[in-house]
Amino acid sequence: MLKEHFLDRFHRNERLVGLSDGVFAIVLTLLVLELRIPQLGPHPDAAAMWAALKGIQSKLVGFLLSFLFVASVWFSHNQLFKLFDKVDNAMLWYNNFLLLVVCFIPFPTALIGEYPRNPVGITLFGCIWILVPLLIYVIGSRAYRKGYLHASVDLKRYRFLRRMSLVYAPISALPILLAWKAPTLAFLFYILMMIGGIAAGFFVKVLEE
Amino acid sequence: MLKEHFLDRFHRNERLVGLSDGVFAIVLTLLVLELRIPQLGPHPDAAAMWAALKGIQSKLVGFLLSFLFVASVWFSHNQLFKLFDKVDNAMLWYNNFLLLVVCFIPFPTALIGEYPRNPVGITLFGCIWILVPLLIYVIGSRAYRKGYLHASVDLKRYRFLRRMSLVYAPISALPILLAWKAPTLAFLFYILMMIGGIAAGFFVKVLEE
Amino acid sequence: MLKEHFLDRFHRNERLVGLSDGVFAIVLTLLVLELRIPQLGPHPDAAAMWAALKGIQSKLVGFLLSFLFVASVWFSHNQLFKLFDKVDNAMLWYNNFLLLVVCFIPFPTALIGEYPRNPVGITLFGCIWILVPLLIYVIGSRAYRKGYLHASVDLKRYRFLRRMSLVYAPISALPILLAWKAPTLAFLFYILMMIGGIAAGFFVKVLEE
Amino acid sequence: MLKEHFLDRFHRNERLVGLSDGVFAIVLTLLVLELRIPQLGPHPDAAAMWAALKGIQSKLVGFLLSFLFVASVWFSHNQLFKLFDKVDNAMLWYNNFLLLVVCFIPFPTALIGEYPRNPVGITLFGCIWILVPLLIYVIGSRAYRKGYLHASVDLKRYRFLRRMSLVYAPISALPILLAWKAPTLAFLFYILMMIGGIAAGFFVKVLEE
Predict the structure, then answer these.
(1) Is D155 near chain A, with CB under 8 Å?
(2) In whole angstroms, what is the distance from residue A135 CA to residue B36 CA?
């Protein structure tokens, strides 16, 4: 009884969630640091200020997109880990790899914000869009195989959502090919995927209630 | 019983609070990074140092105001979410949008600190003052409509405070109009609103005890 | 019963602790950002590198001291808040003011690291040493007066420690006067006070066991 | 009974874990700030961009290694503290010293990334590799001596792992000597030790189940 209680506490691992939320919170706020206020003369008028802000427009858009994308990943991470009764060492490490990918998000986003017509930034961004669902699939599969899911989880629906995350990876690769012909179109593709994902998040339920 | 316990844990969503507190903590401390120490010669005397600090006076004031404003928003966020028994996906996303606005606060505050007589900074700052109470209203309304409030919440008082946050938004818009004639006055208006809000926070009670 | 449970959850306010730990963690790691690696030629030898590191020696010392000082304040904060059964709105705000002071610590520490013989940095640093125990006294007094202490707290010992924090404030002011004659001596005074505080933290017990 | 409950809450000290996770999360994401996007002309082509990214290749590798190393330390920290029923003041301070070392990790990693053939960076890096297992040994020993381990901990295995961390320290010192002859080899040594540590983390169990 005592040992079971200990093992239960040992495997619940609230620190996985604590570390992850910390990393998500920091990445969400990192990009504001990129938004340096424009250096103008001592008393600029309003028109000069608007013009200066237009000059950092791409950084403002980059901040907005990076925020929404990271928030989407947090949303999925949150939904997924709530289904588990326990996690093991391997899942801790898979989660660390996922956090590594999340930490990297500000870099290609800044690259796209600065050079929107260059395919390299979108290629790096696309790699993240491939890696995130793959790692979520790996984590979800291990929990399923090892029997770490809570008894109330609807297994049919779980398997469906897990398969969806596997389908998501190759679809995320398509815009990378497009990026070398029409980078703006490829980028719009990702923005639409993100908006779709956020909209789905409002309605999709992991459980029948 | 087992399923209810699972759903209860599922909907409590302590991670919403964990992510939010992380974002608030980072935004609170971000502005200190803006306070670069002055670059003087090898052995400046005390008078030269005071003069140099006076030169970054506006940044010091910006740091102070930004801190108190973000702390006020955290205070309201804290009071609000303690009243809920559960949150749903839509509320998770409304909260993400609120965090987006919070993350943006350091930018207009820095703009005002650097160019205090320019109306653009105050206009952006005012937009945040409009968006924050609106988003709090949206979150509070959904919780009310969906019945997520704890059974002990005084509904009459709750409706009153919710209506207050709706009244707050247009009042926050007034100084924006003023900003184009008298920016300093408009800024003082916001400082007074903030001090009033902090003072109210000391006394207002969400519950009769 | 239901209402009591709600009020208990309402007043426990774990978010005060969550926000505070976030701010402490960020301030603890902020100064590493100040440690920029030296810019040398393409293949510097070991001697050139040591020389370059000696050049940022004052920043390394500033990092170390700032870390230990903030860790000391966290230690006291941790010990204090564990004694409370509940906190109220006023205490939430007093704690916000304490966090404001904590967020400011990296600034004078960096100033001292850069200009160790200038009294201004030590004066600002000393103000923090005065404000921190005063705010801890104010928080501790309110909890005592309002009866928020846990029933097991040894009140005699509590009153003694509370009085100590009041004595601490004027003692912390002494080196400020010294700073204008002998800044290095004043700084050593603070370092000794900090080492003494850390050593005391190893042994002092808030409770008889 | 009341007092026991209070002492139990007092000594559990979840804030040690909260502060530590905050520090780990920040250090994990700090290095991305070092990855500044390359400054090229207004419309660089893909080839120019790849070339520019190759120029910051060492920083990208530094980011990756720093992340994995800090994640490894977090993993050990997580495993260790889950075994304790309580912590005391001395352990709080030993943990603060451990966090101090963790906060410092980005500095030598950046140094190695910038000057991979210089022995100084590897020497500093090696010191961290010596200090981390030593501090973990000190924390683990105190918990063992004072009887803070949970009753279900397998003491024989605990003593073995504790001894391992003591053996780890001198082995970590070997590459420092190597660094002055063959810095690249010394660095590879640490990478192999880290990969070995991560692989071991997948399989090693603190408890028989």
Answers:
(1) no
(2) 40
Determine whether the interchain pair A67/B103 forms a contact, defined as Cβ–Cβ distance below 8 Å.
Answer: yes
Q: What is the pLDDT of residues B43-97, one digit of tens each?
A: 888 888 888 888 888 778 778 888 898 999 999 999 899 889 889 999 999 999 9
Q: Do C29 and D23 touch (CB under 8 A)?
A: yes
Is the pLDDT assigned to residue D58 strictly greater than 60? yes
The pLDDT, as a whole number, for residue A209 is 54
Candidates A23, A24, A29, partner chain B, best to mutate (most B CBs within 10 A): A29
C108 in Cβ contact with C128 (< 8 Å)? yes
Q: Which chains border D (3 or more CB–CB pairs < 8 Å)?
A: A, B, C
* Structure tokens belonging to residue A173: 């690769």
Q: Which of B176, B175, B179, B180 is nearest to B192 (CA)?
A: B175
Would the CB atoms of A107 and D32 count as touching at under 8 Å?
yes
The closest of C28, A19, D37, D18 to B32, measured between CA atoms, is C28
User: Which residue, among C172, C179, C58, has the nearest Cα to C111 in the 3D structure?
Assistant: C58
Given CA atoms A16, A19, A22, A26 in this order, what sign does their dihedral have?
A: negative
Among candidates D206, D73, D44, which has minimal Cα distance to A116?
D44
What sign has the CA pseudo-torsion C118, C120, C123, C124? Answer: negative
Task: Mark residue C208 as left, alpha or beta (left: phi above 0; alpha: psi -120 to 50; beta: remaining).
Answer: beta
Residues of chain C with pLDDT > 70, as a percent, come to: 94
ipTM passes above 0.95 = no
What's phi and psi for C203, nearest 5 deg?
-110, -35
Q: How far apart are the first and last CA of chain B?
A: 32
**Residue A7 in contact with partner chain D when CB distance is under 8 A:** yes
On whether the CB atoms of residues D119 and D75 are closer than 8 A, the answer is: no
> Could you tell me if A17 lies within 8 Å of chain B, comparing CB atoms?
yes
**3-class SS at A40?**
coil
- pTM of the predicted model as reported, rounded to 2 decimal places: 0.92
**CB atoms closer than 10 angstroms to residue A199:** 11
